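It is time I had a proper look at our fold encoding. Can you supply me with one protein entry, sequence and fold together? It will help me judge whether the discrete encoding reads sensibly. Leave the record below and I will have a look:
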Amino acid sequence: MATKGVVFVTGAAGYVGSHSVLELMKNGYDVVAVDNCSNAVILDETNGLAKNGATLSGHHTLPESLRRVEQIVGKKLKAFYKVDISDEKTIDGIFGANKFDAVIHFAALKAVGESCQIPLAYYRNNVGGTVTLLDIMKRNGVKKFIFSSSATVYGSADYLPIDESHPTGRNCTNPYGKTKYFIEEILKDLCVSEKGWSVASLRYFNPVGAHESGEIGEDPHGVPNNLMPYLCQVAVRRRPYLNVFGNDFKTSDGTGVRDYIHIMDLAKGHVMTLDTMLAENWNGWNVLNLGAGRGYSVLDVISAFEESTGVNIPYKIVDRRLGDIDELWADVQKANDKLNWKAELSLKDMCAHSWKWQSKNPMGYQTSEVVAVKNGVSNGNHSNGNGVNGSNGNNLKAINGNKN
């Protein structure tokens, strides 16, 4: 099968990145993937141990999420590089060695609460890293760019559902949302100042769920920041109960309302954006909401999960988190019209697929041996017990690359 194009994907080992890479490969694109592996699990196939995000000698093992993507699709990545997007020299070298048709940029820090605690890290990584990437693209003549944006750019809603003309930036309630807003403004300025750029900013709402196989899904490290993975960890008894952050929101049941979109619908939205951008040769800056087009409260999600899985979810009401807003859901008519795209999977599908992923992988991508070692329990000769905290992207190597 002839390739539809070669795509450079940042943050490829992450939740949205890995599912989107799967859809890209399934739909005929060759993917060169990069990730600094700071939140990725890399298993040494010889003993099942997770390493510190380092490239392994001999096996050059992929992050587990991407290894499973290759298995599901039955196709290899064109190449994988363990590198941070701030490493300008190395990324520039990757561009020099490949001819890319487009870039899809997922790499970012993304926890709303954490961004309020360490804002400088978010500005440095998210905004600074994106500017570095755009400079590299410009030097190498690659001007088709899909940006992983967020509904957080809207801040507190003036009206619902939110369409793409809703003001942005004015009411951003947290540094994470501000980084997405600042990047969008940079992209707008770039498209005005230089001809030839085709940019799509995809403002997506709350991705949940997993691939229907249950082989890949959301695997947060530490305490989950998002509702569905926390709920799933309660369901497999990794945690005793679910924390519901606030019941004093101005909503029907007092809990926050969000637009939840199945991760596979979101991944397909990225592929359809790329298909349309390349076919129609989009010009300038474009923005699209990707959501389900309706909102569900936290209690709605708990109820749907229990109904879909038969698993009871104990929960406690705790204080709301800094930066959380009452309710948010999308007007997705523009994406329907421009891409012929709409979210097709239901909230029950999201819950059922999340549960399939978590029940098949109770500890996420890590094996039980890895968890035992991390907890200081030696199993045979496995005794180093290092966590999966990532590294700075040094010692770059291409993994599973088809050298063309």
Q: What stands out?
A: Residues 119-139 form the longest helix (21 residues). The chain has one domain: 6-367. The mean pLDDT is 88.
